[in-house]
Amino acid sequence: MSVLVLLPAACGGTSSPDPAKAVADAPAKTAAGGSAKLEVTVVTVRTSSTGTTTTSTAPAPPTKVNGAVDFKAAKGTFTIGAASLGLPAGSAPVEAVLLGQVFYFKGLAGMSLPGKPWVKIDLGKLANAGGVAAQIQSLNPNSYLSQLKGVTGSVTTVGKEKVRGDNTTHYSFTVDLDKAAQLAPADQKAGIEAAAKTVVNKQEPTEVWLDGNGRVRRLKQTVQIASGALTGTTNLTLEYFDFGTKVAAAPPPADQTADFTPFLGGSGGTG
User: Fold this and answer.
1) For the chain, what are the domain ranges?
2) Secondary structure of the chain: what % helix, strand, coil (to 5)?
3) Which residues of the chain have pLDDT under 50?
4) CATH class held by domain 16-264
């Protein structure tokens, strides 16, 4: 990796932005874009340990999340590959609507009631829950922007690269999840704390690509996950594009919705 050379102002050149400041400012500048489409790709290589023996499996097919998010209104709509929620291979994508800290899902096998195809899960009531609840909290794309508040150590400028045809600057650094949770907005804190419960090391190698407006266009993380005797490595890539896109997100009809928050360790009702 090479660090870009700062051109002295005295020579008439323009200085490159301070890398640490560029990354620190990125969440606010991305949110200032109003809204954007997104695509998330997750590739996981699992390892299982028995005694002194560790076995790795071939990478599973990538899990895809596609949708759009309104940063200012804190809402979004998504389709989520079933594998990301632990559903059987071949299951249809799950539909999801995010309103503030409340997720609505349609297509969650084993988590629906007769006549109520939609499931409601309030992330704000699952702060101390783990397991499936932690996985669902980690699906909130806004939590990844908030993680950038947890940068620790130096930030390296890798270089200039294209993302979806647009010019960007590529940076690499480490995110401390505990620090990120402390500095995150109240509505994002639970998601980051949930992510911290599933990893081996809370110091996560992270890369971002910022456009000329300082907005995140691509974010990549490599995470060591752990769940009992099962561990593995997850490589996540998140891309934002088409800023200013219209996001039509509304709650499903109440009579078609069951509140599963209590079953995941939180408090809730029936609608």
Assistant:
1) 16-264
2) 25, 40, 35
3) 1-13, 52-54, 270
4) mainly beta
